[in-house]
Amino acid sequence: MPLAARVSGIANSLHRRFRQREREEEQEPAVASLPLQPLLDPDVERLVEVFRQRVRERWSSPVHRAFLENDLNHVRRYALSLSWIPQGEGLILDPASGAGHFCDVLREERGYTLEMPRYFNLEKEAAPYPDATFDGVLLMEVLEHFTADPMFALAELSRVLKPGGFLLLTTPNLASWVALHNLINHASPYLYGVFIRQGDTDRHNREYTVDEVGKLVTAAGFGVERLAGIPAYPSHDHLPAIPGVDPRDRGDTTFCLCRKEGPVVDRYPDWLYTSW
């Protein structure tokens, strides 16, 4: 199939998916709002508007629009992610960058130089860089897509980080309020666990709890600096707390900022890998 036709087909599929979600949200019963925990601070609110404007600047064609509409759903997550990145300078690796909005604003707001490499398989191929090349690495909304060996990817990203360099990892929270509400209503807790007929890896293969993310990065030789489950998507803000359930880290997205401390501690954690 010609590339233009495939892009158009993907765009149409995305557009149908967004319209379906809007119809579902219109039919959901009204429930008491749950205050965001933690509340967005003024700088995050400012960054939300920065990202929203950056996305709309690229709103140029029907094909782009279908993708950008999805990006508008992610601007709070972009803003929260950027707020977790320490101010500094140096070189950051973003091995799975998307449309480029985040990278553009990161350069302007934090002053880093970004490296966005040509595609390589994070789970199977060595990163094409020498040891201790980067001051930071971004792995945002990627962990949940891995299908074979997530520790390989984390070990490689650690290898190319300088000692003390940071990793910012974000991923859906499998123990969030939205996941628990889905379970109560006999639905899958996965944020996006559907199969895709084209056979690509956009579906979520394995989602993680906040505590599991902490264990994973610790096994890879990182020290956790900040770790929390935070509400990143406004479409989930209406969900109430569930009586009797510990409210800790129930936001829909796990944010983890960690630092390289040493070599991999446990290459195959037994809570994640089988022995055969």
Automatic annotation (TrEMBL):
Keywords: Methyltransferase, Transferase, Ubiquinone. GO terms for molecular function: methyltransferase activity. InterPro entries: SAM-dependent_MTases_sf (IPR029063). CDD domains: AdoMet_MTases. It holds the Pfam family Methyltransf_23. GO terms for biological process: methylation. The keyword Methyltransferase applies. This is Methylase involved in ubiquinone/menaquinone biosynthesis.
